[in-house]
Design brief:
Radius of gyration: 21 Å
Strand content: under 5%
Shape: globular
Mean pLDDT: 80
Keywords: Cell membrane, G-protein coupled receptor, Membrane, Receptor, Transducer, Transmembrane, Transmembrane helix
Largest sheet: 2 strands, antiparallel
Organism: Mizuhopecten yessoensis (Japanese scallop)
CATH class: Mainly Alpha
Main location: membrane
CATH superfamily: Rhodopsin 7-helix transmembrane proteins
Number of helices: 11
Oligomer: single chain
Subcellular location: Cell membrane
CATH topology: Rhopdopsin 7-helix transmembrane proteins
Structural class: mainly alpha
Family: Belongs to the G-protein coupled receptor 1 family.
Length: 322
């Protein structure tokens, strides 16, 4: 597979200025790496440690966090090391593997958000049937299917006839070269990425509106069933909607830039390319920030986790994270 290693332009007189730029970018990537690993690791630990959060929704959150952690543990460290040198310092083969993992993680996140949205949709539209339709066993099967199916969809990208990965100048990310096989690119975007992306947003928007419209009715049902797993609270919809909205805001600029670059690789400024690429990657740690800011029970789970104390009864009986 052919890759083009693009070096940072500049003569000897500009070396110091460029060096400061490398250091600044490297520090930024180090922060992203640290936040991604710690944030998602904390999310997984809190859900596993808190019995009441080990629900289908919690399992989907763990799957989403695991996909995000893959970026922080396997992708960003190599980008950080390259940023300190001002260029991609690893082999073409490593670029292919890292680029694939980045792409795999992104498509996994979209799929996890989609199944999480469907899970919440069932809890709202069929609250009395939710616990029967969505069990932990069902969620495990869904998660396994997602990881395998997405892998099979993405794996053609590593073959030269289908796709190539190239390190982008001054960005330190190995990005798919979509022009290598336009037929595969069209099928991937039109059949999988765009429909999933749109469905996640539309369903969550509809879900948010339904939650507000039927809030009183849902509260009555919740009191009757006394089950937080059957009927989600208004706040839980805000959490999910915020996660989805943040994901789409983070990635839409990157997708727009990539569409532009399909026609001309040189039209986008390097600084803009760096900004949109790493804003998208930084979404990998934003979910843990959202949980902490918007969900009191998650904050309580963090406190209990660090104090290593036994969960009190009101935590054991609390409703699920989402």
């Amino acid at each position: 597979m052919n890759h083009t290693n693009e070096t940072v332009p500049g003569d000897e007189a500009d070396y110091e200025e460029e060096r400061y730029e490398y250091i600044l970018k490297a520090c930024f990537l180090f922060v992203i790496m640290l936040c991604t690993i710690i944030g998602n690791g904390l999310s997984i630990a809190v859900i596993i440690r808190t019995k009441a959060l080990r629900t289908p929704s919690g399992n989907f959150i763990i799957s989403l966090a695991a996909a995000d952690m893959m970026v922080g543990a396997c992708v960003v460290p190599l980008s950080f090391a390259s940023a300190t040198q001002g260029k991609w310092i690893f082999s073409n083969e490593v670029c292919t593997v890292v680029g694939f993992l980045q792409f795999y993680s992104t498509t996994l996140s979209i799929s996890n958000l989609l199944v999480l949205t469907i899970d919440r949709w069932i809890s709202v539209t069929k609250p009395l049937k939710y616990t029967r339709l969505m069990t932990n066993k069902t969620s495990y099967m869904c998660i396994a299917f997602i990881w395998i199916a997405v892998f099979l969809i993405d794996i053609p990208m590593v073959f030269p006839a289908v796709g190539q990965f190239r390190d982008m100048r001054n960005v330190y990310i190995c990005s798919p070269q979509w022009r290598t096989n336009m037929a595969y690119t069209f099928v991937l975007v039109a059949v999988y990425l765009l429909p999933s992306f749109t469905m996640v947003f539309v369903l969550n928007l509809r879900l948010f509106c339904l939650s507000r419209k039927h809030r009183r009715k849902m509260n009555i049902i919740e009191r009757q069933t006394q089950s937080g797993n059957q009927v989600s609270s208004m706040k839980s919809k805000i959490v999910i909607f915020t996660i989805v909205l943040t994901f789409e805001i983070s990635w839409i600029p990157y997708f727009i830039v990539e569409i532009i670059r399909l026609f001309d690789l040189t039209v986008v400024n390097d600084y803009i390319l760096f900004a949109v690429s790493w804003i998208a990657v930084s979404n990998s740690f934003m979910n843990s920030v959202i949980y902490t800011c918007l969900n009191r029970k998650f904050r309580e789970g963090i406190r209990i986790l660090f104090k290593c104390q036994k969960q009190p009864d009101y935590i054991m009986n609390m409703e699920s994270l989402l």
